[in-house]
């Protein structure tokens, strides 16, 4: 844990006592801050009290004596309207920050030269974060990974010289980290998301841009208009800008052609890296993630050999195009994280013959946007509440059955796939899980268990 001694002797209020909120409160208490914490959920308050965190209803405190207010990133800062604690903090002129900001201040205090890689983007940031951390670790670098993935950032080991931090940052976290200054900042892409919390797509893009604006080197994906504008603006204003593209050749920067990764303006025009045969990095979207990772690791001084070795051994993330097992020539892939049509598209674009398990609690728009991928689907196995609507969309274009449950879908898809030769049984639901599972993680685990229960299963 990082002891937040930058706040020693200071009065700090904190709202939001989920997992990262409790970790943040503990870091502040350990650093000697006078902490007053609260949450609207009585169960969260009870857990904090049990963990030794001072709790008090923040409506009753004297806000004028506070030096800082720490807000959980899950609590509205601006939209649809500020949380009541935000109004109280602003009324008292108290700074509003989050756990990433506390980490940044501790890094400045303890080891300002410790390398910090911060990653954001609408899509792909978790895979990119995990891939960079894996490459660094496999090359023998002292590496800590956390933030919006895995461990809360203040539960990581304290900053020290030679240590590398790889931190995923959501837009909510960036909005609460005014001093964020990565060694390498990565902005993968900007597409409409979380507009209920940011109001407009432009405001959302502006928040994402803050991460790279404070970086020594900014790695920016330029496959969307927002990021093109951000890269151009930053290049005129400050940090070194490295552009990446999964779609177009770049004269300067890094780009992908199929599974080969190139650096622009190299006379020999040779691929620097290859993703051929790396199942965890299939698809154009993962080519962009890999471009972000390799360009960052080159900036950090790793050799091409170290980076390629890291790519080759990357296991991927659970529930994100995760290769679970094989039976003969049939591959079973867990993409439970795909909770809407847009999220399911990358997996559907990555395989030529698919036994597709889809359904759950439907999202607006259904699966109509996935129609270009229907020719890749040998048969669909539909589950959950969305099954009738998905069946209507598939119509006579794609054979389907309404399997009802995930276990039935796995069994039927596995049986049918045996006759296909080489095929993929893919769970990529394009739906939320809440009709049958508490979350997408439990849905993915249920898929894994159903696959493992099949006869003749072998590890990938």
TrEMBL record:
<dbReference type="GO" id="GO:0005737">
    <property type="term" value="C:cytoplasm"/>
</dbReference>
<dbReference type="GO" id="GO:0071555">
    <property type="term" value="P:cell wall organization"/>
</dbReference>
<dbReference type="GO" id="GO:0051301">
    <property type="term" value="P:cell division"/>
</dbReference>
<keyword id="KW-0547">Nucleotide-binding</keyword>
<keyword id="KW-0133">Cell shape</keyword>
<keyword id="KW-0732">Signal</keyword>
<dbReference type="InterPro" id="IPR036291">
    <property type="entry name" value="NAD(P)-bd_dom_sf"/>
</dbReference>
<keyword id="KW-0436">Ligase</keyword>
<dbReference type="InterPro" id="IPR018109">
    <property type="entry name" value="Folylpolyglutamate_synth_CS"/>
</dbReference>
<dbReference type="GO" id="GO:0005524">
    <property type="term" value="F:ATP binding"/>
</dbReference>
<keyword id="KW-0132">Cell division</keyword>
<dbReference type="InterPro" id="IPR013221">
    <property type="entry name" value="Mur_ligase_cen"/>
</dbReference>
<protein>
    <recommendedName>
        <fullName>UDP-N-acetylmuramoylalanine--D-glutamate ligase</fullName>
        <ecNumber>6.3.2.9</ecNumber>
    </recommendedName>
</protein>
<keyword id="KW-0961">Cell wall biogenesis/degradation</keyword>
<feature type="domain" description="Mur ligase central">
    <location>
        <begin position="119"/>
        <end position="295"/>
    </location>
</feature>
<dbReference type="GO" id="GO:0009252">
    <property type="term" value="P:peptidoglycan biosynthetic process"/>
</dbReference>
<dbReference type="GO" id="GO:0004326">
    <property type="term" value="F:tetrahydrofolylpolyglutamate synthase activity"/>
</dbReference>
<feature type="binding site">
    <location>
        <begin position="121"/>
        <end position="127"/>
    </location>
    <ligand>
        <name>ATP</name>
    </ligand>
</feature>
<feature type="signal peptide">
    <location>
        <begin position="1"/>
        <end position="25"/>
    </location>
</feature>
<dbReference type="InterPro" id="IPR036615">
    <property type="entry name" value="Mur_ligase_C_dom_sf"/>
</dbReference>
<dbReference type="Pfam" id="PF08245">
    <property type="entry name" value="Mur_ligase_M"/>
</dbReference>
<comment type="function">
    <text>Cell wall formation. Catalyzes the addition of glutamate to the nucleotide precursor UDP-N-acetylmuramoyl-L-alanine (UMA).</text>
</comment>
<dbReference type="InterPro" id="IPR036565">
    <property type="entry name" value="Mur-like_cat_sf"/>
</dbReference>
<comment type="pathway">
    <text>Cell wall biogenesis; peptidoglycan biosynthesis.</text>
</comment>
<dbReference type="GO" id="GO:0008360">
    <property type="term" value="P:regulation of cell shape"/>
</dbReference>
<keyword id="KW-0067">ATP-binding</keyword>
<dbReference type="GO" id="GO:0008764">
    <property type="term" value="F:UDP-N-acetylmuramoylalanine-D-glutamate ligase activity"/>
</dbReference>
<comment type="similarity">
    <text>Belongs to the MurCDEF family.</text>
</comment>
<keyword id="KW-0131">Cell cycle</keyword>
<keyword id="KW-0573">Peptidoglycan synthesis</keyword>
<keyword id="KW-0963">Cytoplasm</keyword>
<dbReference type="InterPro" id="IPR005762">
    <property type="entry name" value="MurD"/>
</dbReference>
